[in-house]
Amino acid sequence: MRTLLALLLLWTAQCLADQPVLRFSVAESWSMPLVRIEGDQPVEGLLYDLMQAAAQAAGARAEYHVMARLRLEEAMNGGDIDVRCYVSTQWLIDRPKDFIWSIPLIHQRDLLVARAGEAGPGLPEQLPPQAIGTVLGYTYATLQPLLAQNRVHREDSRNQLLALQKLQAGRYRYAVSNQLSLQWFNRQAPAGQQLQALAVLDDQDLGCMVRNDPDIPAQAFLRALVRMKASGEIERLVERYGG
Q: What structural domains does the chain harbor?
């Protein structure tokens, strides 16, 4: 029995070693429901489940590299990662030439958020001068003209959860949050302390980018994402995490 178990473990280890590796980037600024990071590795969340499932369907082993959001494009251009997910064409300064876009996977809305009972402006440009809670490394196109004119200024947090916690604590009157993170935050918040969305600032379709390299299963990964989208698996993941 012990011999059989040892052979099975050896066979499993060999199979894993034979699998190609896909190196995924994970932004430090992600928080639940997108991902939860422990010991510099993702352990759960919407994006973690999505990347794990797609890699497995492509016959690859997922390897995760946690890094600052501002380093993501540098890592792509330097060949340090193979896949970047949860990304929009609007967010890139220069499109990396060696990467292929997936189909759109998740539709995201960026919202202007306030505490319960807080009155809000009808339009973002009607905001009075003040600090706005934001996430380090993120670009907010709708707010950019106001930031450039110094009509409002950013108060950056390391991730979206911290930005919302500061808002709840009264550090500022308004913050920007993606819709999924706001819904997750409110699901965990005590009654009477839930945050409210005042306006939609931006919305975009997000997908993945994979390195166009014959040494990795790039096309198999892209096909896996198409199957996951067509079967409704991605929508079920979004719903599971509060979407």
A: 20-106+204-240 (3.40.190.10), 108-202 (3.40.190.10)
Q: Looking at the predicted structure, is the pLDDT value of residue 171 above 80?
A: yes
**What stretches of the chain adopt beta strand conformation (E)?**
21-27, 36-38, 41-44, 61-67, 83-87, 99-101, 106-115, 130-135, 152-157, 174-178, 195-211
Cis peptide before 33 (omega within 30 of 0): yes
Burial of 126 (0-12, 13-18, 19+ CB in 10 A): exposed
Consecutive H or E run containing 183: helix 179-188
* Rg, Å, the chain Cα set: 20
Question: Six-digit token pair at 208?
Answer: 């993945």
pLDDT, tens only, 52-76: 999 999 999 999 999 998 899 889 9
- pLDDT tens-place string over residues 15-33: 445 789 999 999 999 999 9
CA distances from 93 to 22, 107, 156, 211 (A): 24, 21, 20, 17
Burial (0-12, 13-18, 19+ Cβ within 10 Å), 97:
exposed
For the chain, the average pLDDT equals 88
DSSP-derived pairing of the beta strands 106-115 and 83-87: unpaired
pLDDT one-digit tens code per residue, 120-129: 776 778 888 8
Residues 86 and 26: beta-carbon distance below 8 Å: no
Task: Look at residues 204, 237, 12, 1 and name the one whose alpha carbon lies nearest to residue 108.
Answer: 204
Is residue 218 scored above 70 in pLDDT? yes
